[in-house]
Structures are given as C-alpha cells and as structure tokens.
Amino acid sequence: DWSSDVCSSDLLVGTLVVTVVLDLTFAIALGIIASTVLLLRRLMGVPVANDMLADEATRTQTIPGPLHDLIRSRPDLLFFHAQGAISFHSAATFESMLSGHDARPLLLRMRDVHHIDSSGLITLQGIIEHRRHAGGRLVLTDVQPDLEPALRRFGIFEMLGPDGVYATTEEAIAAIPARPWAAVATAAEID
C-alpha cells in the first residue's frame, strides 16, 4: 500500500541525510534500527489467525472447496486458520483472535504457520487453558513437521491430549462427534 511505500522512502531519504551530516558508522546504525522498527510495524499488521468462514476472499485463498463445504456442515465447531509466524510481534493479536469465543471446540488449522517462538508457545498454552476454563477445547490440525519438536518440547501436544492434534482438518472433523443441539444455537453466527 502507498503508506508503507511513503514510510520506506522517508526512511531512505532520512538515512541518506544522516549519512551526509553525521558519522557514517552512526548513520548506518541508525538506518538499521529504523529498518527494524519498520519491519516490526509491518509484521504486526499481518493477520496471524482468521476465521475460516469469515469472508469469501479468505476462504478462496486458504480453504479448498470440499473442505469449505465440510466446515459449513459443522456449525457446532469453530474453525480458524493460522499463518505466518506466531511470535513476539503477533502473540497478542493471535491470543485475542482465539480467546473470545463460546465453548464449541475450536479447530486451529496450522498448515501455513512456518515459525513459532517461545512467546507464541506461551500464548498457545494460554489459549488452551482459557478454552478449558470456558468449557471448550482447542484442536490443532495440519501442523507442519518443522513445528512439531517445539510443540512437543513445550508440552503443547501433551496439554491437548491424544484427541487434540490431527494430521488434517478433515480427520479432526470426522473424529469430533456432531452436537446438533449446539448447531441450533450457533447456526445464525455462521451465516
């Protein structure tokens, strides 16, 4: 977008001016710091998790047609898609996206998560505990093999239990019994 282009060009011009006016070493250090701040601002604007049924644009980018139909057939479940890096810059947003829901089981599809740091792991642990306290549960699906060791070391898989992690979203949906009484109360939220 144009605002980030303007910010980048301002950073470039500012670094050039500082390079001419001040010591070169100081100017380079200032440019690195300013670039880091700009990068963090951009990273914080990237959505880490979104509702898989929120809008048609999100659906077409992240959910194949048959999976979308299967998800729509289960209003007794909540579905979210995580993406990118779950780390210090996105942990608060990630937590707020997943914590404020009713007690329906929440399936978190992690197919597009490529990194999770200790802040992300602590946040995920807090989300699991919050869901339990609210009478719900969290189920992870499509976890990337590169993330599994960190999730195991931190005890996330153990917290979720044997029915809390599935290879695919389809497997998780098939394993969770349908609750028709929950579907009546929540069907209006999905449409």
Task: Please write out the topology.
Layout: H1 2-21, H2 24-44, E1 49-51, H3 56-62, H4 65-72, E2 78-86, H5 91-99, E3 106-116, H6 118-133, E4 138-141, H7 148-154, H8 156-160, E5 165-166, H9 169-175, H10 180-190
Parallel strand pairs: 2-3, 3-4, 4-5
Antiparallel strand pairs: 1-2
Helix pairs in contact: 1-2, 5-6
Task: Describe this structure as you would to a colleague.
The chain is α/β, with parallel strands linked by helices. Helices cover 58% and strands 15% of the residues. The chain has ten helices and five strands, in the order ααβααβαβαβααβαα. It has helices at residues 2-21, 24-44, 56-62, 65-72, 91-99, 118-133, 148-154, 156-160, 169-175, 180-190, and strands spanning 49-51, 78-86, 106-116, 138-141, 165-166. Helix 6 links the parallel strand 3 and strand 4. It is elongated and about 70 Å long.
Task: State the main characteristics.
191 residues; alpha/beta; five-stranded mixed beta sheet; 58% helix
What global shape is seen?
Answer: elongated
- Oligomeric assembly: single chain
User: What's the count of strands?
Assistant: 5
Structural class: alpha/beta
N-to-C terminal Cα separation, in Å? Answer: 31 Å
Count of alpha/pi helices: 10
The residue ranges in which pLDDT falls below 50 over 5 or more consecutive positions are 183-191
- The percent range for helix content is 55-70%
Provide a concise account of the structure shown.
58% of the residues lie in helices and 15% in strands.
